[in-house]
Amino acid sequence: xxxxxxxxxxxxxxxxxxxxxxxxxxxxxxxxxxxxxxxxxxxxxxxxxxxxxxxxxxxxxxxxxxxxxxxxxxxxxxxxxxxxxxxxxxxxxxxxxxxxxxxxxxxxxxxxxxxxxxxxxxxxxxxxxxxxxxxx
Amino acid sequence: xxxxxxxxxxxxxxxxxxxxxxxxxxxxxxxxxxxxxxxxxxxxxxxxxxxxxxxxxxxxxxxxxxxxxxxxxxxxxxxxxxxxxxxxxxxxxxxxxxxxxxxxxxxxxxxxxxxxxxxxxxxxxxxxxxxxxxxx
Amino acid sequence: xxxxxxxxxxxxxxxxxxxxxxxxxxxxxxxxxxxxxxxxxxxxxxxxxxxxxxxxxxxxxxxxxxxxxxxxxxxxxxxxxxxxxxxxxxxxxxxxxxxxxxxxxxxxxxxxxxxxxxxxxxxxxxxxxxxxxxxx
Amino acid sequence: xxxxxxxxxxxxxxxxxxxxxxxxxxxxxxxxxxxxxxxxxxxxxxxxxxxxxxxxxxxxxxxxxxxxxxxxxxxxxxxxxxxxxxxxxxxxxxxxxxxxxxxxxxxxxxxxxxxxxxxxxxxxxxxxxxxxxxxx
Amino acid sequence: xxxxxxxxxxxxxxxxxxxxxxxxxxxxxxxxxxxxxxxxxxxxxxxxxxxxxxxxxxxxxxxxxxxxxxxxxxxxxxxxxxxxxxxxxxxxxxxxxxxxxxxxxxxxxxxxxxxxxxxxxxxxxxxxxxxxxxxx
Amino acid sequence: xxxxxxxxxxxxxxxxxxxxxxxxxxxxxxxxxxxxxxxxxxxxxxxxxxxxxxxxxxxxxxxxxxxxxxxxxxxxxxxxxxxxxxxxxxxxxxxxxxxxxxxxxxxxxxxxxxxxxxxxxxxxxxxxxxxxxxxx
Lengths: 136, 136, 136, 136, 136, 136
Known about the structure:
Six copies of one chain form a homohexamer. Chain A is an alpha+beta fold. Chain A is built from three helices and five strands; from the N terminus they run βαβαβαββ. A five-stranded mixed β-sheet of chain A has the order 3-1-2-4-5. Chain A is elongated, with a radius of gyration of 17 Å.
């Protein structure tokens, strides 16, 4: 069993804002992250799969195909977007890095080939903050 | 003469959009960067000054004071903000990295002590794109 | 269950020196690291917790509060200090990266909120050497 | 139990080419990686061991000795080499990052002292692709 | 005047070998870099241009167009190639990083628009070695 | 004319302390950096030379020889040392990054071959603070 990780990235706007709360409570809870006019990040996304290397290729999966799946089902829907307004799979959710990582897992997992298993979604919001989700 | 550089960072939303143009022309010129709902970046800002080290301290400038000036006149006005809507010194300008670097120079330069000279504003929009402005 | 990591850093002096041994044995065992006049490092500290995202915030923990705990109970006691002489929780221990990581776990763990679990202390001594401690 | 990681690196040429296939099939499967005249990489190698810190040194293992073992049994055989032609332990195997990581485990593991356990070989082929092997 | 830099990368094989010299002299001069079976690198390429920002776009040049020129005239000819054997503009030259940076300048410079000036080719061979060429 | 840069590093202890001042004034001027028991850093040192590539090698200078000079005249005197107490060429000077960079220039410059010119000493004290010295 070998683990293979591909790094991708996307740039997006978001805010942390709970519509059930007052502006004051949002500011108290989220500080500058609640700025009504949005802010944004360069997100770094690491996707890890595991599997057995194929005898003929030495690959657990062709990294170009892997990258294409990540782009089609996650990056293309997130890059240069507003996470709160433009992303169907984030509708109705708080746009925290935690929730975003979990949602990206849901989007990518069904499209991977059967001989590999999705192991981890690791998402950097800034160079000093990241979350990891292992699917459970 | 020694050059001293301090790195700071800020996270902001923006879009590239020229109000004098149609939506179609904006999309043609700026592509995904023109997304009306904004996108955003983790900007890395490097500010470089030059001067002679003081005999008593060995410093051309106390880096804590230097950092405080960068924060007060640039980072605090940019961090967790919308560059198009929230930043007084970007009003009426295209929010390109080029224009932002030049504007940051204008904001910081008057507040530096007389014994140092502002040398360079270096601004990373992403890990693969940066601009430098030397004041002329 | 989601894992959240916050990176902090501190700059400190230390030496590797076992007081029960002769100077010669210390030099033989620790080489340049035993220099009696100390040396030092920029330590990078990654603290990882795990928990369930809160429905209202999307957070497993507010990263500002998390950062504040790391600073109060670890970074503020280590930054710009001599690890052998100035740090109460390293008294009587060898100042290896291994022991430092384990000690940081002991300092931080009791102060975290009940709904999250400390998962890992990862400590870089240099860009090429790091240790991880998972609490057992 | 503490985990200790040492980063090393090596520069090597390779190609992805299955001698049982036609040139056309190799190009179809491996694209530019099948270039008959080779290409190459700066590989970053992270080796992680685990063990209990020694009471007298605070180390699970002297990192200089650890580094020397990695160099003798892996890096010196790989650095400035052609992975397909020059490396005895890659003979007859596809030169994928997966296979290389597994082979490096086999080379290093028997030479580690009994009081530590090899935990992980992590190998970066590029800044955006890496594999991890945990020995099973 | 603002300076804009775009980072690209390519992976290539090469060797340092002067055909006018004996194998022994090549090994004496270039050490492991003269390995007849080649070695390779992940090259990081930074291309810097300077110019005046356009009033309507805020750009000195559209970074997508800039990136496309770098790819067409440099990266696509170098990536996954053997620098000694496969690259027309390196024929008959020693494959040092110095010569490669100078050759990349010659390839890119004629294809840039008239309103910008090529300022610098910065080329990393490894994370610890890079060269810069300013065209004179 | 091509510029060649080599990165080296060293780990050292220091403090900022002016012996002509009281403890109180030192603390007021240098804050935590004046801690009498020292603190320390992982310094990253970039040395840049310029020259014409040799026709036979393609090098402006053999980077192994260049690295050896930096090590012999700078790194070996600084690594795992106390900059205030152990380094002959820092005696009687404030141990600021500015002064250290200027001193490293003085140590290295006389030992470079005649066909290259020392261009820059760039010294990182932390990932967010660096100085550059160009010899004048």
